[in-house]
User: Which sequence fits this backbone?
């Protein structure tokens, strides 16, 4: 199939770029002396996962555990705080795919419920204690008394095994610039290592000290004491990461192919058939830094690829309609994007955008051939 | 299955409310003397569609055409401006399901390309001319020369048939209050009727004069000259419609069931396992009117249903994490929403929220029994 034969909207993957992104991050992990356990919540694709690693992976849903298990990935960290009712499904998936699973907990009530349900299921689950390194999301403070108490509680159940500590510097996504992100990376490392050190001093074995976000993985200077990192969005990259200074726009591997379906001279807008569902309503790249202009819901490229067309952005979205605005003359804009022509939209936040699609259309840069259709995992429940 | 056995996040449907919403809108259409052609882009469900109508429907994707065709809906308006490359698939779907399809156009280039491709396929397609009634989205001005020229162009092809005019007052979603929306409804009606009247005066048959959005359908005083209306979100309703004054919060029929997976005393937030993907990042209900407080990414109800819990909202979302903030004491908030407990989140904009789910879990108000799982259409391409 050719690029020109694809029905719009659909999700394109530039294979050259995803290969390059994966190779670069492998090199980063090697240079930093840590294992790379990529977070597949972004790519949701076994084909991308195989480019990213031959080892363990990170996921965010039961559906992803089932999907990646089915595709031969056995060593999986489920990096959303566990809740006991999910254990029945997890036990089934473990059996079905022969998985080695690590689950996340940060509260005694969670540990008690998980231990109780694990006993009923006659299972033993590996738990990572989540640490809050400053983002205020999940996790315990690395320096509090609750940390040791929780480890003790885990040890007290024969149905649980303390496997390590895990933290995620989510705040890095709101911190533009190399210098600022480098500081966040050090805070992330320091929190995880402090937690591990305190636990070891109290007699606990802590095999895993896990950190990671794409920004901190890209800019970390030193990961002493850390065993693995879990970046995810780097596989595809997006305008948000470009605005943070974490990648170049030329590194963005995923885009949405859309058709021009209208010209509205009254609102001076070009209408495309990719709206809030096809692009997502995420606006996170806007107003982040000095590196990128206002990108709206996405920047506009030629269908064949190449850099963003100067001055154009998706300025407004409704459910199935997107509206491209230009900075110059409207007649020129309409001539530049004639009715029936096609564009690629670079996503603002690719984790949100890509989630709406059940597959990637895979191409090489500059080639009109669609080489493959790579399926993606969707939803939450297997 | 019981409500308590569902894995989270998942999408709940209150059958009493959807039945009531559908009955009320049928009554509105009858009172206004127009046909009701519900827009199923919101519900994406044949089961909901059967509650809404025994007649024609409106959809927004090729995938919905295939899905509803498969479920016996034959008379379908595809209410996103057509682009010629979609005609091959449409022709296949017409044959497969025996469909009577109406397509949308507003530009000579579209009409020329559709006529050319229809000739190659040896088909005749019915076209509605889209009219811009002030929203600045798709459509021609109802009073311009382009309207008559486009109708003439359609008539000049033996592979096309002019079926009528269609408009959508998208601006009603940004216009809170009965009085203001009533004025938008009249502008919507007037634009469609003006276009139809001018075309008829020029000798064109215009069987269909189609208007509609949920706000204008609810508040229109008079639809003289209109043949049908196409509201959609009324089947489920949401906080956005409540903020506009179009429904009560008690009319909202869809919600997301989520589990409490953490308490963060540092950020004073309750963590749930429903984030930006499970709730969407749509914020449209916020800052709209005086009728509702800041709803963030959704209001929080007890898992069993009932009104929103006072002072609580989903204040922040990340991909798979939502953060509930309260207005009062943090200890009280944590006691109110203990770890492992469940909540229902009322969606900000249900079209965006529901799109992430491949089914509804259907319940009666106040009952813990899940009566059925109703599938939903997803994606774009069959």
Assistant:
């Amino acid at each position: 199939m050719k690029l020109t034969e694809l029905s719009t909207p659909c999700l394109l993957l530039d294979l050259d770029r995803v290969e390059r992104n994966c190779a670069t991050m492998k090199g980063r992990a090697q240079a930093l002396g840590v294992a790379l356990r990529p977070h597949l919540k972004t790519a949701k694709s076994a084909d991308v996962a195989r480019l990213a690693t031959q080892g363990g992976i990170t996921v965010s849903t039961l559906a992803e555990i089932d999907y990646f298990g089915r595709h031969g990935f056995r060593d999986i960290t489920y990096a959303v705080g566990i809740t006991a009712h999910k254990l029945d499904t997890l036990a089934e998936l473990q059996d079905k795919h022969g998985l080695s699973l690590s689950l996340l907990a940060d509260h005694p009530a969670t540990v008690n419920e998980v231990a109780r349900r694990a006993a009923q299921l006659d299972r033993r689950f590996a738990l990572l204690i989540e640490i809050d390194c400053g983002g205020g999301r999940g996790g315990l403070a690395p320096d509090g008394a609750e940390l040791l108490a929780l480890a003790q509680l885990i040890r007290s159940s024969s149905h649980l095994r303390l496997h390590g500590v895990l933290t995620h510097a989510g705040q890095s996504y709101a911190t533009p610039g190399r210098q600022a992100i480098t500081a966040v990376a050090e805070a992330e490392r320091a929190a995880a290592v402090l937690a591990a050190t305190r636990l070891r001093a109290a007699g606990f074995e802590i095999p895993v000290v896990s950190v990671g976000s794409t920004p901190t993985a890209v800019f970390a200077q030193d990961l002493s004491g850390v065993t693995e990192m879990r970046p995810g969005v780097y596989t595809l990259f997006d305008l948000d990461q470009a605005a943070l200074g974490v990648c170049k726009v030329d590194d963005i591997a995923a885009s949405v192919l859309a058709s021009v379906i209208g010209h509205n001279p009254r609102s001076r807008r070009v209408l495309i058939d990719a709206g809030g569902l096809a692009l997502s309503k995420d606006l996170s790249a806007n107003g982040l830094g000095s590196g990128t202009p206002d990108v709206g819901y996405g920047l506009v490229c030629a269908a064949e690829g190449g850099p963003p067309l100067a001055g154009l952005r998706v300025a407004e979205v409704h459910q199935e309609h997107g509206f491209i605005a230009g900075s110059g003359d409207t007649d020129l804009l309409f001539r530049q994007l004639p009715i029936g022509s096609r564009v690629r939209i670079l996503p603002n936040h690719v984790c949100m955008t890509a989630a709406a699609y059940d597959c990637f259309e895979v191409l090489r840069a500059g080639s009109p051939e669609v080489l493959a259709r790579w399926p993606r995992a969707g939803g939450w429940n297997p």
User: Anything to note?
Assistant: Chain A has two domains: 3-9+247-375, 15-235. The longest strand of chain A covers residues 254-264. Chain A touches chain B through 66 residues (CB under 8 Å). Residues 15-235 of chain A form a domain with the TIM Barrel fold (CATH 3.20.20.10).
